[in-house]
Design a protein that fits this description.
By secondary structure, this protein is mostly helical. Helix content is 22%, strand content 4%. It has a two-stranded parallel sheet.
Amino acid sequence: MLLAAAEHEAVYDFGGFDAELYTLRYDAPGAPALAPKVAALLEAAGLSAQTVDQGGLDHGNWTALRYLYPQADIPVLPLAFVPSQSPAAQ
């Protein structure tokens, strides 16, 4: 699943941490124009891909991106994995 929103916000999909962590922001632009190209490449490689115009950056994405690109000024096209599939299938 390619999350092809025009803009992304940080998603706080975790719990049990200091409240200050939930105040961190990482609102990055999306890359919706790139999504069909990436989907076609995945399909050509034999991988099923869907594109949705929804967004959001999981903490696994925004935690690293905040250090690499602190201004959140690069387009991001998240690729969501299917949690029910094995690592080999991913």
